[in-house]
Amino acid sequence: MAYDEFFGCLLTSFGIPIVLVCFTILPHPLRIITLIISSSFWLVSLLFSSIIWFAVVPIRDKLAFGLVFSVIFQEIIRILFIFCLHKIGNAIKSIGSDLKSHESSVSQSIISSNDLATTSINVSDHRAIDDQLLWGDRQRIVQNTKDDIFNVTSFAYVGGLGFGLISGLFAILNMLVALKGPGTLGYYDEPMDFIDFYAIQTLVSILNHITFTVIVSVAFQAKSFIKIGVVIGLHMLSSCLTLLNNFPDPLPSVVLGINCSICFASCFWAFREADGQINRIFWAAKLNFSRLNRFLRHAMSSKSGNL
Question: 182: helix, coil or strand?
Answer without folding.
Answer: coil
